[in-house]
Amino acid sequence: MLIAGRCHCDNVSFSLDWSPDPTSIPARACSCSFCVKRGGVWTACPTGRLRVSLRDSSKVSLYTFGTKTAVFHVCSVCGVTPVVTSLIDGRLYAVVSVNALEGLPSGLVQPATTVRFDVETEAERLARRKRGWIADVAFERG
Question: Which residue stretches of the chain are H helix?
Fold first, then answer.
């Protein structure tokens, strides 16, 4: 299933090829202070393929904090964060914002489950991302 998503102003958009087709899409509400303040709810398909398009990359802010292992791609125009990436062992992994998804059938996205990652070591966190985040990620800059 090809799933589209974007920020509010369409400066950052993505297509996620969720394979195999999902019967439901999990939603994880992160409990870190950044995600709590911004309403961050994320999903990923480890076997999927993500293509992110940046209309104007100069209007995308990259924000990191804490362990500096996740990069939040924040649209500087509208303030939405559609994608988070993590570079692990030379490979780019990503999750996408459930709030940025568009055109999905009603009920496909599960209600958000709050998750806590502050109890993980950095090694555990990176290993979890390698298992659970999208591993086929590419950016196209306009």
Answer: 33-38, 122-132
Q: Are 102 and 29 in contact (CB under 8 A)?
A: no
For 9-33, the pLDDT digits (tens) are 999 999 999 999 999 999 999 998 9
Nearest Cα to Cα of residue 45 among 113, 95, 105: 95
| Strands, sheet with 91-97, edge to edge from the N-terminal-most edge strand | 60-63, 71-75, 83-88, 91-97, 41-43, 28-30, 113-115
Q: pLDDT, tens digit, for every residue of 46-72?
A: 999 999 999 999 999 999 998 999 999
pLDDT of residue 117: 85
Residue 89, CA atoms < 13 Å, CB-side half-sphere: 6
Domains within the chain, CATH numbers bracketed: 2-141 (2.170.150.70)
